[in-house]
Amino acid sequence: MPTPSPAADRIELMQTFVHIVEAGSLSAAALQMGATQPTVSRRLQALERSLGVRLLRRSTHAMKLTEDGERCYERARELIADWHAFEADLRGVGDEPEGTLRVVAPHALGQLLLVGPLADYLRAYPRVAVEWLLNDRRPDFIAEGVDCAIQVGELTDTMAVAIKLSEVPRVVVAAPSVLAGRAPPAHASALAELPWLALRTFYRSEVVLTHRPTGEIARVPIRPRMSTDSLYALQSAARMGLGACVGSAWLVNEDIAAGRLVQLVPQWHVAPLPVYLIYPPSRFQPARLRRFIETMRLALADPAGRAWEAGAS
């Protein structure tokens, strides 16, 4: 059997080590990799000999990273990601994107508004396939093999590279039945008297509004009858008259036009939510990721906000 080159061998050893840590045991890592446990154990020992440090402490029932092992694990993940991106970059030397792009996007945006730009991207680059994964949490890029994610709201990961794509306009709405027997609220403070729905990802017990003409700020306490992490569930509950809510304009504009929902206190402004495309730091970006970033920036970077009307058209 030919002996691998030292560089290729070290990459393989580091990949094995990362698999061991993330799988939680040598046997689980061997199963994931389609290898035997003795092979995985030999690779771990070879990496420890090569580095001259102990990476794991193992007993019959437990496995724990040493201090050196913790540092090695974090660095190995970065190096492996850089190596994969470097390989992909070389394979795409003609700058023709190819391969599989794994993207995480929020449920509502990913089901409706972003599918159009995604379709444009796939038509433009026929040698690329996309895994379009919809959830509202930030992924573990390395462990889950995710290339990039689209995130709504303020950033919490200071290590990721973030590109601001746009902002989501938001409005306060309710079904006409919520206002039955009530005068429409004239001041934001009157919203506290209404039954409420909360989108717990962004607001739970308070809504902050700014009066456009004067700049006055109102902090409105609310006691939600229902809280959800789903924008679609929030929209459905609002349509059914369960309470007022702060909804994304692109999703509720059609309901407002059809009379299913009414915009409340239109002179009061709810701060829009930023939309970012985030990805792990790397010196190399495959062409498929670069072109995807360009496509999303062009699709959503609309200073007049027209891109966010697409969901209501």
UniProtKB/TrEMBL annotation:
InterPro entries linked: LysR-type_TF_proteobact-type, LysR_HTH_N, LysR_subst-bd, WH-like_DNA-bd_sf, WH_DNA-bd_sf
Domain of life: Bacteria
PROSITE patterns: HTH_LYSR
Pfam family, one: LysR_substrate
Domain HTH lysR-type: 9-66
Keyword Transmembrane helix annotated: no
GO BP terms, alphabetized: DNA-templated transcription
UniProtKB keywords: DNA-binding, Transcription, Transcription regulation
GO molecular function annotations of the record: DNA-binding transcription factor activity; sequence-specific DNA binding
Family statement drawn from the similarity comment of this UniProt entry: Belongs to the LysR transcriptional regulatory family.
Protein name per the record: LysR family transcriptional regulator
